[in-house]
Amino acid sequence: MARLIAYGRVSPAGLLSWAPGGVRRTSWVELDAGAVAEFGTPKLRAKYFFDEPFTKYGRMDPLCKVAVGAAQLAVKASGDLIGLDRDEVAQVGGTMLGCLEVDAQFDDTRRAGAPSPALFVYTLPSMFQGEIAIKFHLRGRCTLLSTGELSALTALGTGIRWIEKGRAKHVLVVVGDAAGPAAAQLGPDYTAQSAAAAYLLSGEGNGRELADVRFNTEPGEARILEPGGLKYGTTFVDALEPLLLGDEKTRVHGSAGGQSVSFRIG
Q1: In terms of Cα–Cα distance, which of 44, 9, 2 is closest to 23?
Q2: Could you say which residues of the chain have pLDDT below 70?
Q3: Whether 10 contacts 237, CB under 8 Å
Q4: pLDDT value, residue 232
Q5: Which one of 118, 211, 212, 222 is separated from 37 by 20 to 30 angstroms, measured CA to CA?
Q6: For residues 150 and 127, is the Cβ–Cβ distance under 8 A?
Q7: Taking a C-beta distance cutoff of 8 angstroms, is the pair 207, 170 a contact?
Q8: pLDDT score of 19
Q9: How would you classify the pairing of strands 208-215 and 223-224?
Q10: pLDDT of 159-205, one tens digit each?
């Protein structure tokens, strides 16, 4: 059985981190982060997440910044992965928009006749997982999933299954999206937002038990997750959050686009 042993979330509402000992919420005002920027949050800075200087953070693309930030919140809440063999920490990622924004930025430099190597390195939707692996020295298996608005639930369900099936001892699930100028060109429904969540799962230790993942089934008596304030691949993150961080035992079910994910919390 999988257990949620730490959690971190970055969103327009601010920062949140959780471990079985309690939850910590930090607003952007408390961080003196300034005005909202083009991705729906104040400009993300390494000092909001890391106690030590991390100069590479400032060079990352928007998706990497929000995803690495969420991962750091979960890692720090876990006591810096205390008791976990980093060779055994796998990663599952989830995103809907992927590297859309940096793709557009790189294409602008290409069209101008001077393609940017600094931007090109981030034109992979899985690059945030590479940055996480490097920063936290994770050497387990890794996969990235993109299932539209269900990306977060699909990634989390996959991480739970990996532990239940013995495919990984621990899994860091990180889901996120960064929507800005490029996303806005897709239509009026694509508004600015930068958000990510990180779920640290383990087959051992203390934490919320997560089990019995089911894909594309009827909800039955499960609690139906409604879309919250977050969008894109993180659509169900804020609806799921209070259930994961509480003490109620329940089955949850989220659906979008004719597909669904459900699992038991308890």
Answers
A1: 9
A2: none
A3: no
A4: 98
A5: 118
A6: no
A7: no
A8: 98
A9: unpaired
A10: 999 999 999 999 999 999 999 999 999 999 999 999 999 999 999 99
Per-residue pLDDT at 29:
98
SS3 helix, strand, coil % of the chain, rounded to 5? 30, 30, 40
- Overall size of the chain counted in residues: 266
Q: Per the structure block, which two tokens stand in for 58? A: 């400032």
CB atoms within 10 A of CB 264: 17
CA dihedral 102, 103, 106, 108 (to 10 degrees): -110
DSSP characters over the chain: -EEEEEEEEEETTEEEEEETTEEEEE-TTTTT--SB-TTSSBPP-GGGT-SS--GGGGGS-HHHHHHHHHHHHHHHHTTTTTT--GGGEEEEEE-SSTTHHHHHHHHHHHHTT---HHHHTT-STTHHHHHHHHHHT--S-EEEE--GGGHHHHHHHHHHHHHHTTS-SEEEEEEEEEESHHHHTT-TT---EEEEEEEEEESSSSSEEEEEEEES---TTSEEPPP-S--GGGTTHHHHHHHHHS---EEEEEEETTEEEEEEE-
What is residue 176's three-state secondary structure? strand
Looking at 139-226, list the stretches that DSSP marks H as alpha helix, in order from N- to C-terminal side. Answer: 151-164, 181-184
DSSP string across 106-125: HHHHHHTT---HHHHTT-ST
